[in-house]
Amino acid sequence: MSSSAFSPSTRSWPLLEARRSTVAELQESLRLAEREEFGIRVVEVVGAFDVLDRANAVESRDSAMLRAEVLSGNQLQIEHAMQRAVEGRYGLCEDCEDQIPGERLDAWPEATRCVECQRRHELSPGS
Ligand SMILES: [Zn+2]
């Protein structure tokens, strides 16, 4: 098999697009839930005499914020991977330039680093 037989950009592009719209849908539903719950939550926090109830109300707000943060992180990563596909660099590790294994891209189409480099990147972000 020649090296041109494996073309991750054409194979993974629909996956990336699907994931991007999934994230957008999740963000939208989170926004709607936020708006709907906001009124309830104010009542919960203000009206909660029980300290535990109050803590739960605050916690549900925090986890919604956390979810929103994770989603926007996903969105950035997906767009980043799509940008690399447009540049013809999809499937190449952005640190060591090695080919990212196909199984990794199947499991996580927005991966832009090989496992090794990703781990190093997460240990020291920004380097
Ligand atoms: Zn690498």
Describe the structure.
The chain is an all-alpha fold and 127 residues long. It has a single domain, classed as Four Helix Bundle (Hemerythrin (Met), subunit A). The chain has 4 helices and no strands. Helix 1 runs antiparallel to helix 2. It is elongated and about 55 Å long. The protein starts with 7 loop residues before the first helix and ends with a helix. The N terminus is likely disordered. Zinc ion (ZN) binds next to helix 4.
Work out the helix count. Answer: 4
Helix content: over 70%
Low-confidence stretches: 1-8
Looking at this structure, what is the CATH superfamily?
DksA, coiled-coil domain
The overall pLDDT, averaged over residues, is 81
Strand tally = 0
| CATH-scheme architecture | Up-down Bundle
Our count of domains comes out at 1
Top-tier CATH class: Mainly Alpha
> What about the largest sheet?
none
Query: How would you describe the shape?
Result: elongated
Rg over CA atoms, rounded to whole Å, is 20 Å
The amount of beta strand, in percent, is: under 5%
Structural class: mainly alpha
- Helix-strand topology string: HHHH
| Cα end-to-end separation | 36 Å
Topology:
Blueprint: H1 8-47, H2 51-86, H3 102-107, H4 115-123
Helix pairs in contact: 1-2
Bound molecules: zinc ion.
Residues 93, 95-96, 98, 113-114, 116-117 line the site of zinc ion.
Brief characterization of the structure:
The protein is mainly α and 127 residues long. The chain is built from four helices and no strands.
Keywords for this structure?
127 residues, mainly alpha, Four Helix Bundle (Hemerythrin (Met), subunit A), binds zinc ion
